[in-house]
Amino acid sequence: LAVLTTSTLPRWGGEILSDHLKTEARAARHLDLVHPNAHLESKGYPVPKATKTGTTICGTVFKDGVILGADSRATSDNIVAEKECQKIYYLVPNITCGAGTAADMEKVAELISSQLELHRLNTGRSVPVVAACRMIKQRLFNYQGYIGAALIVGGVDSTGPHLFEIHPHGSSQTGMFCTMGSGSLACMSVLESRWKENMNLDEAKQMVRDAIKAGITNDLGSGSNVDMCVITKDKVDFIRPYEVVCAKGVSFLKKNSLTVTPSWIPTEVIPSAEQKELDALVSKCQRNEEASRKLCRDLKKYCDTMSSLGKAEVAMTGDLSSSSMCQNDPQLCHLVEGYHALAQQVGQPRCCRAEP
Amino acid sequence: MEAPMELLRQSINPSFTMNAPDIMPLPSFPAFATDFKSRTMNPITTGTSVVALKFDGGVMMAADTLGSYGSLARFPNIERLLRVNDSTIIGASGDYADYQYLRDIIEQKVIDEACQDDGFGIKPKNLHCWLTRVMYNRRSKFNPLWNIYVVAGLQDGVPYLGYVDKIGTSFEAPQVVSGLGGYLALPLLRDAVEKKPKMNQQEARAAIGDAMRLLFYRDCQAFHKYHLGVITKDGAKIEGPFEVDVNWDLGYHIHGY
User: Fold this and answer.
1) What gap in Å lies between CA A105 and CA A95, rounded to an integer?
2) Catalytic residues per the record (chain A) (predicted)?
3) Are A185 and B217 an interchain contact pair (Cβ–Cβ within 8 Å)?
């Protein structure tokens, strides 16, 4: 299915606008794809539906800056497409954004990041967070909600820490804490009950971790790890993963502390006294078995050699008795024939069965 | 019920009209709906979430006192918790009329049980099971009771908490929340119980209070007053109405958009 897109222009924007083309076309809208899309539609290639991915992202302002948190599951319908996907994108040294519900968020983030860098070079100053918010907002509004990016932009600039949440249609809100995504309600429950002014770093980190964890455990579209990004005036601390919430074989319910990462190696089982005795007996048995096997092999070998010896004796005496030396000496002949008969008798295989 | 035309025809004895000329035909009524079977198509006056959790020694349930009429906060002082007997309380969310209907039936059941005077009363599991069958039956007839019921009580001394839907979904859980509270309050209650599995009554009250405050903040149809139902071995009691303590100081920090 050949889809006409550029890297940034969505298909759907044009499709809907084509209906209102004559009445509502405005200069700011991108209308290049209206006719090609309409043509394709008429030929039976319908507009692809944007797939929604579940997510929990949140952000909060604390005493020294901003913390953004996110889960790390990317879903495609009912399958987990990626377990460790990164939802926190880096825009400029002092601003990052948490991506919400769509994959074209990445492209938006890249575009805005480059525009912000140009802004920074042009003005010679660090970029204010409102600039990022405004650029993203204007872009999303242009596409009337067809770029399905719902995001939280957070950062620290010369005026202090800022946090904005931006919805796909281009509306933005500022606040002290915000959540987005399918797990946003669960996440909001934690933030609403525990947020207070001027939290210190550890408190804030614990709160964000608990909030994302609530989203991960109560929402099916979110899962895997908690990623966190702490932005202060001096630095950006990108902790990924902050915590593995649902590791295989480890119940997160038992882990309470902030910094525990569950290990994948199962703990050593310390054997009890009886276990030790049993182990000793088992090893003894094994040794005995080895020895008896070896014995059997040796016995078999012995029997084989004996039988071959017997055969050799028979052959030898036979040859000797029929040799010229025997013909000449009747005493020797008699001796040799006696030996030959005896050898034949003994050479019968009797007790040489080696039973292992 | 059939159309009025038919009723009229049936009311006139055919022996009078047999073989008579049709000099005065029956009046024709304007066409109107003949399907008088009433089916619940959508709820009218609704109650929002009911939150409940089990604690060490009993169960606690809360429901706010608002009956919403669509988006209008029409009845600010209704009671959505029903004390059935000393060991059971049910909370209802959804259509209030359907709850009132069922409430009358349940109260009559309690009276009947008292009349039997055999020392037995309705136990929570019994009521839950009965409710499930009623709801499922109604749903199967395409005429549901548009409610979600939360049944709480002490079943032989052990705390019991159950949920019944308008389509007959029923289950038992340590925390049960109906409606939008399932997204908002349930994570909070689960977290609180995870941190302290054996809560006492005070802690349970605090957790429920937290949940009701959160719902008032984030649910459009919630209210700041609520009733609290507590069932312990000492009996069942509905307290309240309590008021949610809200803090809007956050507004001072918000500038711009």
Assistant:
1) 16
2) 55 (nucleophile)
3) no
